[in-house]
Design brief:
The beta subunit is responsible for the synthesis of L-tryptophan from indole and L-serine. Belongs to the TrpB family. This is tryptophan synthase. Helix 6 (140-151) links the parallel strand 6 (131-136) and strand 7. This protein has a domain at 6-13 and 68-110 and 234-446: Rossmann fold (3-Layer(aba) Sandwich), CATH 3.40.50. The radius of gyration is 20 Å and the shape is globular. With 454 residues, the chain is α/β, with parallel strands linked by helices. Strands 1-4-5-15-10-11-14 form a 7-stranded mixed beta sheet, with helices on both faces. It is 41% helix and 16% strand. The longest helix has 20 residues, at 384-403.
Length: 454
């Protein structure tokens, strides 16, 4: 048996197309609805927020969407990303499982988020947009769009969830280093932000609030558009560059995953690694078990309701059918800020409803313990978000040991934790606690779901 640890593709092997799972869904997605009319949205309805190139990708059902050459050239800075065989972790766990991880922390921003930030910046620049507003939780998305803005000559304004703004000053510094402006949310810069602060001056913010602020600003100027780092179809589409590469690298390893795992907040990195494999299975290829892992403090897939809801707390966005805790849900300030979103991507929610994926939820202390176990074996400190996937991988590998089963487990190590060392400092000092999930607060938020008869 080969003892290869790292499977590397040449730059020429960067995929030429993204994969769109909408082409292979056994049943179509529920339509996206206009927030005022409750009728399916058109391309014109989305035009105030997104450039035409992005809107076309949001609505398409073509299986493959060509990656523009300027985007492929920008990807060359770090893509193809390496695939690793976690041999040292396998030994530490004494498991017969074969563990692989696709490492997206090699990107300039340290996560998978540039996979969609670059194409979104490209399409905006191509249509004459001068400014993009956005939100960020832990800061990976804001960092990535700041980088993309510098590459494609765009002004970037980022509303960063207030608790993360305080917890992660180096993420803020990263954005500002690339010329972006970073604002703590809720802020005094928007009518919605001011209304939140009027109700609760100590609000720690949420992704739903930050999205509402960014959308409000984008709608006010013709030279400005909005960009989202997860949830929407075009974002998940762009992320599949990860899984398309991983399929080729697994072939290099002469292996194929039985189980594919990723953490889920809005769903982009999960879709990126899982969808190409799941799409192959839907077309009659080898079956795979797909496991989405989320925080117990924000459990959209495991405790949310599959229903129409707004993507933001200001209720300005179109309505999508998704697993949701309610757009008014306020998650506690746990350290995996990228997973603090009230809803799950419609495509992932749809596949969960159809029974094509499993979901698990863990509290943060177990996830940090798993992340350190991985780091001490593999030499990479994962982002707090990625620790959720690591926790599930370790559980799966231990199950293989107990059953004497050898299976291949692939997961997406979606980012490194080098900007998150305060979180690890707090964990190692015993200053973190499990936050669980407030079922009462979730029930209150779900009680406010919009009434949609479809």
């Amino acid at each position: 048996m080969s003892e290869t640890v790292k499977y590397v593709l040449d730059e020429a092997r960067i995929p030429r197309a993204w994969y769109n799972i909408s082409a292979d869904l056994p049943a179509p997605l529920a339509p996206v609805l206009h927030p005022a009319t409750r009728e399916p949205v058109s391309a014109d309805d989305l035009a105030p927020l997104f450039p035409r190139g992005v809107i076309e990708q949001e609505l398409t059902t073509e299986r493959e969407v060509e990656i523009p050459e300027p985007v492929r050239n920008a990807y060359r800075q770090w893509r193809p990303a390496p695939l690793y065989r976690a041999r040292r972790l396998e030994k530490a766990l004494d498991t017969p499982a074969r563990i692989y991880y696709k490492y997206e922390g090699v990107s300039p921003a340290g996560s998978h988020k540039p996979n969609t930030a670059l194409p979104q910046a490209f399409y905006n620049h191509a249509e004459g947009v001068r400014r993009i507003t956005t939100e960020t939780g832990a800061g990976q998305w804001g960092s990535s769009l700041a980088l993309a803005g510098a590459m494609f000559d765009l002004d970037i304004e980022v509303f960063m969830v207030g608790v993360s703004y305080k917890q992660k000053p180096y993420r803020r510094a990263f954005m500002e280093s690339f010329g972006a402006r970073c604002i703590a949310s809720p802020s005094q810069e928007t009518a919605f932000g001011r209304s939140v602060l009027a109700d609760n001056p100590a609000s720690t913010g949420s992704l739903g609030i930050a999205i509402g602020e960014a959308v409000e600003l984008a709608a006010q100027r013709d030279d400005t558009k909005y960009a989202l780092g997860s949830v929407l179809n075009h974002v998940l589409l762009h992320q599949t560059v990860t899984g398309v590469e991983a399929m080729e690298q697994m072939a290099m390893a002469d292996d194929y995953p039985d189980t594919v795992i990723a953490c889920t907040g809005g769903g982009s990195n999960f879709a990126g690694i899982v969808f190409p494999f799941l799409g192959a299975a839907l077309r009659g290829g080898p079956s795979v078990e797909a496991i989405a892992v989320e925080p117990l403090a924000c459990p959209t897939l495991t405790r949310g309701q599959f229903a129409y809801d707004y993507g933001d707390s200001a209720q300005l966005t179109p309505l999508t059918k998704m697993h949701t805790l309610g757009s008014g849900f306020m998650p506690p300030g746990f350290h995996a800020g990228g997973l603090r979103y009230h809803g799950m991507a419609p495509q992932i929610s749809h596949l969960k409803d159809l029974g094509y994926l499993d979901a698990r939820a863990y509290d943060q202390l177990d996830c940090f313990a798993a992340g350190l176990e991985f780091a001490r074996a593999e030499g990479i400190i994962p982002a707090p978000e990625a620790n959720h996937a690591v926790k599930a991988v370790i559980e799966e590998a231990q199950g293989c040991r107990e059953r004497g089963e050898s299976k291949a487990i692939l997961f997406n190590l979606c980012g490194h934790g080098n900007f998150d060392m305060q979180a690890y400092t707090d964990y190692l000092a015993g200053n973190l606690s499990d936050l669980g999930g407030s079922q009462v607060e979730a029930a209150m938020a779900l009680s406010g779901l919009p009434s949609v008869e479809r």
